[in-house]
UniProtKB/TrEMBL annotation:
Domain annotation Wall-associated receptor kinase galacturonan-binding: ranges: 33-93
Keyword Repeat attributed: no
Native source species: Datura stramonium (Jimsonweed)
The protein, known as: non-specific serine/threonine protein kinase
Boundaries of every Wall-associated receptor kinase C-terminal domain copy: 230-259
Location(s) in or outside the cell: Membrane
EC number, UniProt record: 2.7.11.1
Amino acid sequence: MSFSTKIFLWFLLFLLIHPLEAVPSIIPLNGSCTDRCGSIVLKFPFGSGFGCGHPAFSRFIKCTSGVLQFSTGTGIYTISSLDYSTNTLVLTDPFMSTCSSMQNSGSFTLDHSTPFSIMKENIFVLLGCSTTSAVFDPKQDLCDTGSGSNVCRGLYSCKGVTGIGLEPNGPISTCCVYDPPVPIGSGYGLNLPRLQCSSYSSIYGFGGDEGDPMKWQFGISLQYNNSYFTDDSCKNCEDSGGVCGFSGADESFACICRNGVNTTINCYGRGYAWSGTWRHKIQTEMSVGGVLFFWMMMLFM
């Protein structure tokens, strides 16, 4: 076999092998990731379940029956709104007291290791507290007795206070606008049994009328860390119609396309073209090419 013939055959081998190497890495399927949960649009770093969005968020966020939920050590809360322009979301605690309905509440904590923090605009109010509660210790100074008194008067004017055994417009001596020594969300939280209080309320806005508690905005407003975009991978994925997620033991980036196929880049031309059917076709063509190459080698030897 001449030298030029060998060169030609090696070049042909390269052409046969190269298309296989060009096929993007196909990652094992994470399951179904969606870009919406009920009426809430989901964008990175949020996701609809495990394997969707950023792994640091996926541990706390999931979509269940069209309801976006947030999990902490003290319970599961509904995310009532999500604002990407301000990097904020609002949690709704079903046991939290509002002006229209007051009831015995559970505790609330937010671990400091989460990518979320409680916004300073939140006003936490402890209701139906024992007069022996530590929050009323003058040496601790845990209650806001200034503007906080107006908040307490507003809540105690609500008919809903009957739900915790109080009469409307009664004394506010059992109410405390709580100012903890360690911010909630730093591993401290609201421990109502320890604080000897029946219920709590959280107000993140007054709805333009501080004098009407029926217009107040009840919920827990959180801000999230938005430093998870390290490159353009996710933007390219979302621009191609995919949903950003992760896969594997190392939780590496994955772009989940609408037909369920995952790639390491984007969904342009891969939402169908790189599905199992087409991958099988490529492998079949490689097998035929291998036989052809072997035949040519035998011919020229």
